[in-house]
Design brief:
six-stranded parallel β-sheet, Tumour Suppressor Smad4
């Protein structure tokens, strides 16, 4: 049996929920890591979806105590979910893309073993990503949740716009009628915020982006603020409104209720392959390098 490696001797595997093709890459990954001498455990919900008998399973809440590294096989949604749990435990994460775009899960399945071989040998780039800490006050109590991408307050299924008040550090900023408001981290600036017309914010910029969703008045535009600010979003008028954290945690909101958003006390640790370039990733994922046929000029094959 190979000796336990000095770097990341214990590794937890986390899979995409309800993914039909999870068994094969997980088995490949477990065999690869075991051959290198790593102790492998599988997050409990992931193990329940595959042949759990083949793996030692561990609840997500215990990964920090039982693993030095988490490898996430799935899409960005899977990474968001586990990142909110592991950020406070300071466990680094590597993403293997089994989803669509994969802004956070940046290693393709086809290069999984070769990429991880280099990274587990120490050839990687580490990034720290800020999180939002959201507090909802209602019914005389408080509920909290974290978000790596965004906190959104929006209208419900009834389809009518909401009137939303926005305060910055306790000072009124504006009240608007819209479908909703997004507070996005730099990580989340390439997610829902981007589709709503917000700017792309590079991960190292200490800022939040505030993006109105379909505002009634076109004078309400996206704005970027310092990430040390505290933001309060309040439902002034509107039925069936709600606050969402990363689109995965939902808090119903009545009129007069809202959510307070501030920077979390800890960050998410992401490991990327050596040579990782954020802007090269954007060019690839957003197809910035593609040239329309009309600009290519006459064909050289003629």
């Amino acid at each position: 049996m190979p000796e336990a490696p000095d770097r990341f001797p214990r590794i937890a595997l986390v899979g995409r929920p309800s993914s039909p093709g999870l068994d094969e890459p997980l088995a490949r990954l477990a065999a690869f890591l075991g051959a290198r001498g790593h102790q492998v455990v599988v997050e409990a919900e992931t193990a329940a979806q595959v042949d759990g008998a083949a793996f030692a399973s561990v609840p997500a809440a215990e990964i920090g105590a039982q693993a030095d590294l988490a490898i996430v096989v799935g899409g960005d949604g899977t990474m968001l979910s586990i990142a909110r749990r592991l950020a406070a435990l300071d466990v680094p994460m590597i993403g293997v893309n089994q989803g669509r775009l994969g802004f956070l899960t940046d290693i393709p399945l086809a290069r999984m073993e070769s990429s991880l071989e280099a990274m587990l040998a120490g050839r990687y780039v580490e990034e720290r990503r800020t999180l939002l800490d959201a507090t909802v006050t209602r019914n005389g109590g408080q509920e909290r949740a974290l978000a790596l991408n965004d906190v959104v307050i929006n209208r419900g299924s009834l389809g009518t716009m909401i009137d939303c008040g926005v305060d910055i550090d306790g000072r009124p900023m504006f009240t608007m009628r819209a479908d909703g408001m997004i507070v996005a981290t730099p990580t989340g600036s390439t997610a829902y915020a981007l589709s709503a017309g917000g700017p792309i914010v590079a991960p190292g910029v200490p800022a939040w982006a505030l993006i109105p969703v379909a505002p009634h008045a076109l004078t309400h535009r996206p704005i970027v603020v310092d990430d040390t600010t505290t933001i309060r979003l309040t439902v002034i008028r509107g039925r069936d409104a709600a606050a969402h954290c990363d689109g995965q945690v939902r808090f119903p909101l009545a009129e007069g209720e809202g959510v307070t958003v501030r920077r979390a006390a800890f960050t998410a640790r992401l490991l990327h392959p050596e040579g990782h370039d954020y802007f090269a990733m954007l060019r690839q994922k957003l197809h910035w390098s593609e040239t329309p046929d009309r600009l290519r000029g006459p064909s050289h094959d003629a």
